[in-house]
Design a protein that fits this description.
Helix 4 packs antiparallel against helix 5. Strands 1, 2, 3, 6 and 7 form a five-stranded antiparallel β-sheet that branches. The chain is 31% helix and 22% strand. The protein is built from six helices and nine strands; from the N terminus they run H-H-H-H-E-E-E-H-E-E-E-E-E-E-H. It is of the alpha+beta class.
């Protein structure tokens, strides 16, 4: 039965993470008014479902979890190798994309995040999410530009807003070298 104790297993996972990444993990729990049902007891499913539906805190936690999953569906694609700039900086030209189909993503953002959503790095605003205006062939696509000191600087792109906590988009914290390697941007061109 100890293997079914999701709470202690979840705590062990979260405690093994560094402080910055702990906020990216969420456990959803309800307090049971009486003993927990056996794993094969289907007669109490309605009761358990009602515990979730009637608990305002659980509804809020579910919305926060859906928001976190939505933000994690956004990812960054580096468009070209980095360009050197004055002051020993490197210019990153890329695109924020989304794994979800455009229409689904737009409806979800409007439903769970009615205030303005924007993207940013640690040091620079990258612009607002504009929903349907950023759809191309029914997929989300937002061009962004920012600088890094070198290819090995750890960088992150966040979704930010006034009403929700800042959240990292997928695949971050990473270096631009990581993106170059994954996308094979330094591969020799065929002549």
């Amino acid at each position: 039965m100890s293997s079914f104790d999701g709470e202690s297993n979840f705590r062990n996972v979260v405690n093994s993470l560094d402080r910055e990444n702990r906020g990216d993990y969420k456990g959803l729990n309800v307090v049971l008014p009486r003993n927990e049902p056996a794993m094969d007891n289907t007669s109490r499913m309605d009761e358990l479902r009602q515990l979730v539906y009637l608990n305002p805190q659980m509804i809020q936690e579910c919305e926060e979890t859906i928001y976190a999953l939505l933000i994690a569906s956004f990812y960054f694609e580096l468009n070209t190798s980095l360009s050197p700039m004055p002051g020993n900086r490197m210019r990153c030209l890329g695109t924020i994309r989304c794994r979800l189909p455009g229409g689904v993503m737009v409806r979800l953002v409007e439903r769970i995040h009615p205030s303005r959503l924007s993207f940013a790095t640690h040091s620079k605003a990258l612009g607002y999410y504009f929903g349907e205006r950023n759809l191309s062939c029914r997929r989300y696509r937002k061009s962004v530009e920012f600088t890094v000191r070198d290819l090995d600087q750890l960088t992150s792109i966040y979704a930010t807003s006034a009403k929700r906590p800042r959240r990292k988009t997928s695949a971050f914290l990473q270096t631009m070298q990581w993106f170059i390697d994954r996308q094979h941007l330094d591969a020799p061109s065929k002549s």
